[in-house]
Amino acid sequence: MRIVLADDAVLLREGLASLLERFGHTVAAAVGDAGALLAAAAEHRPDLVITDVRMPPTHTDEGLRAALTLRAGDPQPAVLVLSQYTATAYAAELLAPAGRAGVGYLLKDRVGDITEFADAVTRVGAGETVIDPDVVRQLLTRQRAADPLARLTPREREVLGLMAEGRSNAWIARALLVGDAAVAKHIGNIFAKLDLPGPDDGHRRVLAVLTYLRA
Questions:
Q1: Interatomic CA distance for residues 17 and 101, integer angstroms
Q2: In total, how many domains does the chain have?
Q3: Of 145, 162, 187, the domain-final residue
Q4: DSSP class of residue 80?
Q5: Are 19 and 66 within one domain?
Q6: Which of 57, 64, 80, 155 is the 20 to 30 Å CA partner of 3?
Q7: What is the average per-residue pLDDT within 147-161?
Q8: Contact assessment for residue 68 and residue 98, using Cβ atoms and an 8 Å cutoff
Q9: 16 and 44 share a domain?
Q10: CA-to-CA distance for 93 and 142, rounded, in angstroms?
């Protein structure tokens, strides 16, 4: 494969280039910032781009944003992102379906296992998706944290769903074969877990339903 490599750490960049060539690949360019990465990709039209997340000038997420640009481009190379940390802000977008080109997201610790890294390069180049297990765990944690209903129990979700249908407390109690007090307790828990302030239960009920519908 023709590969363009980007990492601002010179020793790691040169080491990866040497390793990739040892595997039989051609490193068309090895650069140190996101601008140079996009320019090299446009010039060499590689089969695979390997990039770090944090690169000059701000050392935040330039490499990851460059990878997203390449994923949206034409021709679209396969992209393998290497990172010291999981940058969840764009990771989900990077890993979303975006054509036939392969995509990968590995933590740099995995590069220490040469066999595993070589396999990831081959698989991403062949169109597969390769995701570091730690990245998967953090994305799932972030997704759960972003879901306001994640804190509710199954019964509380059920009660909230009936509230969203416009059912009264008495109707919900009859439908669930529980007492009015049990329903009131569930609704109180829902308000608390959704962080809905104020003494007006009618207002909080509306806010709870809106939260449910948005989720």
A1: 21
A2: 2
A3: 145
A4: E
A5: yes
A6: 57
A7: 87
A8: no
A9: yes
A10: 13
Note the pLDDT of residue 80. Answer: 94
Question: Domain span at residue 88?
Answer: 2-145
Place of tokens 């994923």: 71
Per-residue pLDDT tens digits for 184-207: 999 999 988 888 876 667 778 888
Count of other CB atoms within 10 angstroms of residue 198: 10
Per-residue tokens: 176: 């669930």
Cβ atoms 166, 155 nearer than 8 A:
no
Identify the DSSP state of 194.
T
Same domain, residue pair 100 and 124: yes
Q: What is the pLDDT of residues 36-76, one digit of tens each?
A: 999 999 999 999 999 998 888 888 888 988 998 998 888 88
Are 79 and 153 part of one and the same domain?
A: no
Which contiguous run of DSSP H or E holds residue 52?
Answer: strand 48-52
Enter the tokens of residue 26.
Answer: 């051609």
Taking alpha carbons only, the member of 204, 206, 193 closest to residue 157 is: 193
Tell me how crowded residue 126 is: count the other CB atoms within 10 A of its CB.
Answer: 12
